[in-house]
Amino acid sequence: MADRPNVYDLSLADCVALLQEWGEPAYRARQWYQHCYRHLTVDPLQMTDWPVRLRERLAAATRWGVLREVALVTGDNGETRKVAWTLPDGSPLETVLMRYPDRATVCVSSQSGCPMQCVFCATGKLGFLHDCSPGEIIEQVIWAARTVRDATTGTAGPRRVTNVVFMGMGEPFNNFDAWWTAVERLHDPAGFNLGARNFTVSTVGLIPGIERLATKSLPVNLAVSLHAADDELRSAMMPVNKRYPIADLMAAVRSYTTQTRRRVSFEYVLLQEKNDDPVQAERLADWLRPADAEPLLCHVNLIPWNPVPGTPLSRSNRRRVTAFQNALQARGVPCTVRIERGVDIAAACGQLAGRP
Ligand code: SAH
Q: Beta-strand (E) ranges in the chain?
């Protein structure tokens, strides 16, 4: 029954319409939707506020998730969990949950594999395999929400997902419509009810996506993967730069901050003696703190590179990371070094490649 819809692909209006066909009132649809997004029920037969016959009918007509768990690994004393899934077409997907004393963040994939081919990233080595549907994105968050809610060990931190970051496999802006539908669904106060500020999307720098996001009223956070401050180096690391070079990208980010008044994050992966010279930090500061324009409303996140097997690169040592950070800060650029999670289980940034 491949044509049974995945419930996570259905809007509340879709639920209402389906039940209407069955002659059921709209309040049943709201109950159903609340089971999915409030109670995190994953089996319709557990919807005990429904008559058994109706539950059975729903179970026969819908699929409650399509992701098949193939491996679960934990690291950081159980505070980080990575789950490897298989999609119905056989392609791999990964999701990472990170629990902290003050928050619980789920890192979600928007595509299986990735077409962007950044040289330092494990996911790019798979090539592009599959665009996730909204439901396939949402289902990853529901898994995380159930996992933190039901955890019996670990931190005394929140028992709900507080942050969703689209920093897993894939390029979200390359799957913009499905990605945005997932954001709106998860934000919906009638359902999962996660605040817009608790979402962060990371892009390789697809300018049309940045422009589209600027027109949205939900103020989700934008992160841009920069990783180099001159076109020659950036194009060598990230092929996308040939299409959207740095000057154009900076102009797009600048108009985004002007339109939205929202601060943008730049991600900068530090690779030993490739892009971590203080000269690069100066060039970066020239973009963000230009002499002839307003300072850009931004923050820089430095990410010491996480190892990817078979890639002839190495992570910057601590001394070079600090020097780079100091050079940026001396120019008045707010800048932090990302705290690592999941490196021991290949669940860190850029390590997701469908290998448990
Ligand atoms: N395609 C989007 C979403 C991926 S987010 C993007 O590129 O922004 C993952 C972040 O981790 C990106 O900033 C990416 O450049 C970075 N990254 C990729 N490989 C990495 C690695 N091996 N070590 C550290 N960060 C990496």
A: 68-75, 80-86, 92-99, 104-107, 111-113, 128-131, 163-166, 199-203, 221-225, 264-270, 298-304, 335-337
pTM above 0.90, yes or no: yes
Per residue in 253-308, pLDDT tens? 999 999 999 999 999 999 999 999 999 999 999 999 999 999 999 999 999 999 99
Say how many Å lie between the CA of residue 227 and the centre of ligand 1: 9
Q: Which residues line ligand 1 (CB under 6 A)?
A: 116, 118, 120-121, 167, 171, 202-204, 225, 267, 269, 303, 305-306, 308, 349-351
Separation of CA 14 from chain center: 26
Written as six digits, the tokens of 265 are: 């994050």
CA proximity to 345, closest of 66, 86, 97:
97
Instruction: Name which of 303, 307, 308, 304 is nearest 316 in CA terms.
Output: 304
Domain ranges of the chain: 7-61, 68-345
Domain 68-345 classification at class level:
alpha beta
| Full strand arrangement of the beta sheet holding 221-225 | 68-75, 80-86, 92-99, 104-107, 163-166, 199-203, 221-225, 264-270, 298-304, 335-337
Cα–chain center distance at 101: 21
Class of domain 7-61: mainly alpha
